[in-house]
Design brief:
alpha+beta; three-stranded antiparallel sheet; 2 helices; elongated
Length: about 110
């Protein structure tokens, strides 16, 4: 019983398929470039999305109770880390009434303490 392989599987397995043509190389770089652009801009897109959908939320007065800054250790081994720069996380703990008193946290990461 013989197995037939699609050209893509043949190419992935290295069983041949011929050299890459110009359009294939262009498509490859286009897809990789689009993926890199999305991954780099993801935080900007996420921030815009949150601002857009939260613009009609009601506002309430709050009192900041606790402010803390902590050093965040990387969970990746140093050989896999993108950079070895420290990352700090600022946390604001606040209370507000809506109508009963509630407590919440706001966290944000920074490169400098």
């Amino acid at each position: 019983m013989g197995l037939t392989m699609t050209p893509l599987i043949t190419f992935i397995h290295g069983g041949g398929g011929g050299p890459l043509t110009g359009p294939e190389v262009k498509w490859f770089f286009l897809v990789v470039g689009a993926g890199l652009l999305v991954s780099i801009c993801w935080q900007l897109i996420d921030d815009w999305y949150k601002r857009f959908h939260g613009r009609n939320w009601p506002t309430v007065q709050a009192v900041i109770d606790i402010v803390s800054v902590t050093l965040v250790e990387s969970k990746l081994p140093s050989s896999m880390a993108v950079h070895n720069w420290p990352t700090y996380q600022a946390t604001l703990t606040y209370t507000y009434s809506n109508p009963e008193q509630q407590t919440a946290d706001y966290k944000r990461s920074f490169g400098k303490e």
